Amino acid sequence: MNFNFLQTFVTVIEFNSISKAAKALNITQPAVSKQIASLEDHFGIKLLERLGRKMVPTEAGNRLNRHAKIILNSLQQAEKEINEMISEVRGNLVIGASTIPGQYILPKIIGLFKKQYPQVKTVLEISDSGKVIEKLLEHEIHLGAIGTKVLHDKIASIKLSDDELVLITPLEHPFATRKTVKAVELAGEQMVWRESDSGTRHAVEEKLTAKGLNVNNLIITAEFGSTESIIGAVEAGMGISFVSHWAVPENEYRRNIAVLRLEDIVLDRNLYIIYPKRKYFNRTAETFINFLHQLDNKGF
Fold this sequence. Notes:
- The protein is of the alpha/beta class.
- It is 43% helix and 25% strand.
- It has three domains: 3-85, Orthogonal Bundle (Arc Repressor Mutant, subunit A); 91-161 and 270-297, Periplasmic binding protein-like II (D-Maltodextrin-Binding Protein, domain 2, 3-Layer(aba) Sandwich); 163-269, Periplasmic binding protein-like II (D-Maltodextrin-Binding Protein, domain 2, 3-Layer(aba) Sandwich).
- Strands 3, 4, 5, 6, 7, 10, 11 and 12 form an eight-stranded mixed beta sheet that branches.
- α5 links the parallel β3 (91-97) and β4.
- The two termini are 48 Å apart.
- It comes from Desulfofarcimen acetoxidans (strain ATCC 49208 / DSM 771 / KCTC 5769 / VKM B-1644 / 5575) (Desulfotomaculum acetoxidans).
């Protein structure tokens, strides 16, 4: 018997609904129905029946529900105890990250983590914030690292780092000789923008909108999918843009760009590690999060 089927069965009873159970388990309604049918075939008896708009257990279903909860709780406890017995952390850790944390912050942290936990193989996948969130919900990655706060009942987060977004221009641009500009001066300027699901783009547009600037009136000449592409486009004279200050030290002195700040808007934000809200989850992911807490306490 597949123990996941028992979890599905218990969840349907908990919500009195196949559709709500499917949503809670992140699987399709047909998959839930198929698993319930498999259990009924296994026991040779009807386990659930419809009462009005609710799915309720039969007498046999109530008995199975009681024993299934005991079995599932015992399995969770066994997994926890076995994990605690394992002194050496090993296995795979897949992290999905948006451009800034993925290119400029996590590689160093992963290197330090590898020294302490050499038996862990870490895979770092770079994409935009929207795709990272999607992959986390689909259980394709263990952890995510993005530049925007996520409000989702199945996702928890911790702060990874501070960030500041700065304005970059070509050296020949009139702004290049200045240290600051006002937000209103961006009107009429050709802008090079990140893609729609970018955390950097969301943060900039949110701050500009709060200041009363209509972002729909900005002249967007091109959209790019990475910070490196943005910097290259600005260097080529395609327009001006905003990037994380984490990307500037590597590029400011070897590329033809100037770095400024907005005089009347503080473009600060937090970068976050996101992970699934579960009672227990991947041991290597949990170890990595604890490792981040240790780094933070040391002032990383």
